[in-house]
Amino acid sequence: MPNAALEVRTYGPQARPRVGFFTDTSLCIGCKACEVACKEWNRVPDDVAPWTGDSYDNTRALGADTWRHVAFVEQKVPVGADGAARSLMQTAAAEGLAAEAGLDTYQEGDGLRWLMASDVCKHCTDAACLDVCPTGALFRTEFGTVVVQDDVCNGCGYCVPACPFGVLDQREDDGRVWKCTLCYDRLRDDLEPACAQACPTNSIQFGELDELRARAQARVERLHAEGQEDARLYLADPDDDGIGGAGAFFLLLDEPEVYGLPPAPVATTRDLGSIWAATGAAALALGAGLAAAVLGGRRA
């Protein structure tokens, strides 16, 4: 399987430090400014869906026409004295706000917690989509990101099931695949990606991956110290994330499944080498057996 570091080194002196996104969901307010900025800069077609009644999320998932997707996860949580570590005065204020603002649900004493998270292509180190592309439409940039060349893509769709995150999608009108480029054109001009620049709370942070990982670890430790024990990093450990390292990782306040993310993603092409080796060995053994049978038959 190709190694991202080796691929970037092929750029020689043009190779740049690997960059990516750290998305801190504890800071996301669900404004969708990142979605709008992405669409405007990259001229991504509008795909706002009708309101389903299930959620206020009107884009629902990543796709060929949604390169940034802000998930709205609505959870029912207690707002009473047993539901949070707060003083009696704070509890009374929270209960009063819940009743006054209509946060109470049909269950007595329950309220809502909204978890919001801006999802994007992970720009994997072991990028299965890149491995299976037969035309070279997918390539590794000098920044370590993975980009689709729309003028080379033939719409075969091999990369769609190869992605362990379900990011890749084909556009209905022409069948070609489209996804986040991490604003490759902006990177080449030393500009910040449009989504990160537009984020008003700094939930989407852009920079060199090593620096972002250190910043993310410090943020988790701070949240733990403040009582947010469920805070955890997702895809921040390149040695234990199943894809050899991600160019986009996240701070989550709940399990990955709650946000629609796979809990243990694995590059779908990871075992191809061993599979082909086993297939080759089996073919050789079969060939040897057939040859022995033919030679033995002739001697008889």
How is this structure best described in words?
The protein is of the alpha+beta class. It has two domains: 4-74 and 117-269, 2-Layer Sandwich (Alpha-Beta Plaits); 271-300. The chain is built from nine helices and ten strands. A hairpin with a 6-residue loop joins strand 6 and strand 7 (177-178). The longest helix has 28 residues, at 272-299.
Topology:
Layout lengths: L3 H6 L9 E6 L8 H10 L26 E10 L9 H14 L8 E10 L8 H5 L5 E3 L5 E3 L10 H4 L6 E2 L6 E2 L5 H4 L6 H5 L5 E5 H17 L6 E3 L13 E5 L19 H28 L1
Parallel strand pairs: 1-10
Antiparallel strand pairs: 1-8, 2-3, 4-5, 6-7, 9-10
Oligomer: single chain
Task: Tell me the number of strands.
Answer: 10
The CATH class assignment of the largest domain is Alpha Beta
Secondary-structure-based class equals alpha+beta
Strand percentage lies at: 15-25%
How many structural domains does the protein architecture include? 2
The helix/strand order is HEHEHEHEEHEEHHEHEEH
Shape: globular
CATH architecture of the largest domain: 2-Layer Sandwich
Distance from N terminus to C terminus (CA atoms, Å) equals 47 Å
Radius of gyration: 24 Å
- As laid out across the biggest beta sheet, the strand order is 8-1-10-9
